């Protein structure tokens, strides 16, 4: 592929969207075409699926299998309609969450079968894995404190995943570490409990080291 594909992963409140925006600025300053997107979502279909997933918008609780397949349907649509065409065009694609969120949340936290999830993910993305995955690692409590201050004074409320027990989120974080151990070449783990600037500079080092 002429373009490069970078995904950002991490527990709730780990600062992914801020770091994606900063990396976009840095890459664009070097004259590169950058396209930023997110999961679930990133397409009209995906954004409707996001609404179903995050707020039980259909008015009934989702089963674990339905949840998994909705995430991966959104992913397939994003991959086929947006990410692959952009990479073929030579763009850099930055994606907020991707296959590893499914492994961490549905696999390690919900307890669904890991080899089955690997196979479904692989089917959804047609084998095109990210060139680099930045894992913004943060203590669960620290992430939730950030969320509280983000929501304070707004009328936004916690989504279905943020309302899960803390134990669920500890399994997510542990799951991410296991995924990074499984594919150390693809992952770069960054301590996200620091200033925005310090994290951004480490993200940039990781990108340069891996892709430039
Ligand atoms: P966020 O994009 O605001 O972080 O919200 C997405 C939520 O969905 C987040 O709690 C993680 C969760 N999620 C999964 O459980 N599985 C997935 O495959 C993806 C992409 C996200």
Tell me the layout of helices and strands:
Elements: E1 4-9, H1 16-29, E2 34-38, H2 44-55, H3 64-88, E3 92-96, H4 99-109, H5 114-125, E4 132-137, H6 140-151, H7 166-182, E5 187-191, H8 196-211
Parallel strand pairs: 1-3, 1-4, 2-3, 4-5
Helix pairs in contact: 1-8, 2-3, 3-5, 4-5, 4-7
Bound molecules: thymidine-5'-phosphate.
What does this structure look like?
The chain has about 210 residues and is of the alpha/beta class. The chain has one domain (about 5-210): 3-Layer(aba) Sandwich (Rossmann fold), CATH 3.40.50. Helix content is about 55%, strand content about 15%. It is built from eight helices and five strands, in the order E-H-E-H-H-E-H-H-E-H-H-E-H. Strands 2-3-1-4-5 form a five-stranded parallel sheet, sandwiched between helices. Helix 2 (about 45-55) packs antiparallel against helix 3 (about 65-90), helix 3 (about 65-90) runs parallel beside helix 5 (about 115-125) and helix 4 (about 100-110) packs across helix 7. It starts with a strand and ends with a helix. The relative contact order is 0.20. The mean pLDDT is about 95. Bound molecules: thymidine-5'-phosphate.
Tell me, rounded to a whole number, the average pLDDT.
97
CATH architecture call: 3-Layer(aba) Sandwich
Runs in which pLDDT lies below 50 for 5 or more consecutive residues are none
What is the β-strand count? Answer: 5
Alpha carbon gap, first and last residue:
15 Å
Range of strand content: 5-15%
* Distinct small molecules bound, one entry per kind: thymidine-5'-phosphate
Spatial ordering of strands, largest sheet: 2-3-1-4-5
**Class by alpha and beta content:** alpha/beta
Helix tally equals 8
Shape: globular
Q: What's the helix-strand series?
A: EHEHHEHHEHHEH
The biggest sheet amounts to: 5 strands, parallel
Count of structural domains = 1
CATH superfamily: P-loop containing nucleotide triphosphate hydrolases
User: What top-tier CATH class fits best?
Assistant: Alpha Beta
